[in-house]
Amino acid sequence: MCTLEKRGSLFILTLTGDDQHRLNPALIDSIKAALDRVRSDSSSNNSTSPCSALITTAHGKFFTNGYDLAWAKSGGPASATKDRLLLMSFKFRSLITDLISLPMPTIAAVTGHASAAGFLLALCHDYILMRKDRGFLYMSELDIALPIPAWFTAVLRSKIGSPMALRDVLLRSAKLTAQAAVERGIIESAHDGAEETVGAAVKLGEELVGRRWDGHVYGQIRMVVFDDLLRAAGFDESVEDPNHVNKVISRL
């Protein structure tokens, strides 16, 4: 599912394998467990390593291709599909909250396509670096006739400053290459290939660690900056009945 490597003060989380890294509960749980280890390790070593940084990347053609809708639909009747969608949403929103609250700078090294929820996962890092020769950022919902939850929009509004860029992402389903994303101010920089992208992410991570910031202060400031995003992630109107959610989560 994913691996976690410690390289000095950098943590490198890699989605493994050559598939689409679809965000089903198993993969989300694997990423959350890695973030728990990062948080625990950074807390225990705080006195000797006052700042760390996280880099998230992936093997293969995709960074992640979004929710695992095939898994959701494999549960049987429509009611079971809705329950599985609810579970994915619940776990993914919890993952985003974990990422936003992480006590260190975060960098997404996007070496393949990042679509829908996969695009959101990249956006919820502090910096996005992307390879030029493969991959695009893409909100596919309009093209597949799937409404976008309000909390998805809250993430996009928090991270994409240009109204025209936001329009292109949401209302044109634009497939943004690295160069187009740089021009729209969505990503930090574009690089020649996967190795170069990860290498640039490592260099940026080392520069950020070199500032020797207090990680907990960094995380607290980030949570204040993205308070609206975090509050919006508390509920997904597209799948949730508040009276039903706890029952579903306990059963699945």
Describe this structure in words.
- The chain is an alpha/beta fold.
- The chain has one domain (2-251): 2-enoyl-CoA Hydratase, Chain A, domain 1 (Alpha-Beta Complex).
- The protein contains 11 helices and 9 strands.
- It has helices at 25-44, 69-73, 78-100, 117-123, 150-159, 163-171, 178-183, 194-209, 215-225, 227-232, 245-251, and strands at residues 2-7, 10-15, 53-58, 62-64, 106-110, 113-115, 127-131, 137-138, 189-191.
- It has a 6-stranded mixed sheet, sandwiched between helices. Strands 4-6-8 form a 3-stranded parallel sheet.
- Helix 1 packs parallel to helix 3.
- The longest helix is centred in the middle third of the chain and has 23 residues, at 78-100.
- The chain starts with a strand and ends with a helix.
- 47% of the residues are buried.
